[in-house]
C-alpha cells in the first residue's frame, strides 16, 4: 500500500512522492493532480501494476526506473508529456500511448527490454531521437495517421522493430 504526498504549485497540484510498497499502485482520483514528479516509483521492484487518474497531464523523469517487475501501466487519457527516462528500465511488455501526447520524448522508454508492443493513438505527432533506445525485444509499433515525424534514431537498438502505419 502506498501513501502519497502532494504539493500545490502555481500551475496546480503535483504528486511529489510516496511511501510504502506493494504490487499495485492506484493513484487516487479524489484530487485534481496535474503533474507526477520525477522518481515517484523509482526502484520499486515489487510494483506490477499502476493506474493514473485522467487529470494528470505530465509525468516526470525516471518515474519507473528499475521497476523490473512492472507489467501494466494505465496512462492518463489527458497526458500531454512524458519527461525523458520516464519509463526507463522498467518491465512493461506493452503500452498504449494516448493521442493527447503530442510527442514521445528522447529516452522515454530507454532500455525497456521486456517491451514488445507499442500502440500510439491518434493525435501523437512526433517520436524524437532515442525515444525507444535499446528496447531490444520491441517488435511491433502501431502508429496513428497523425504521426508526422519519426527520428531516424527513435528506435536505435531495436533490431526487430516493425512500424505498422494506418
How would you summarize this macromolecular structure in one to three sentences?
This is Leucine-rich repeat protein. The protein has 166 residues and is mainly β.
What report would you give on this structure?
It is a single chain. The chain is mainly β. It has one domain (1-166): Leucine-rich repeat, LRR (right-handed beta-alpha superhelix) (Alpha-Beta Horseshoe). The chain has strands spanning 2-9, 12-20, 24-26, 33-36, 49-51, 58-59, 72-74, 81-82, 94-97, 103-104, 117-120, 126-127, 140-143, 149-150, 162-165. It has a five-stranded mixed β-sheet with strand order 1-2-4-6-8, with no helix packed on it. Strand 1 and strand 2 (12-20) form a beta hairpin. The protein is globular and about 40 Å long.
Class inferred from helices and paired strands: mainly beta
CATH superfamily: Ribonuclease Inhibitor
Distinct helical segment count: 0
Strand neighbour order, sheet with most strands: 1-2-4-6-8
Our count of domains comes out at 1
Quote the CATH topology: Leucine-rich repeat, LRR (right-handed beta-alpha superhelix)
- Fraction of helical residues: under 10%
- Report the span from N to C terminus: 41 Å
Query: What do the pLDDT scores average to?
Result: 96
Radius of gyration: 15 Å
User: Helix and strand string, N-terminal first?
Assistant: EEEEEEEEEEEEEEE
User: In percent, how much strand structure appears in the residues?
Assistant: 25-35%
Looking at the overall shape, the CATH architecture is Alpha-Beta Horseshoe
Shape: globular
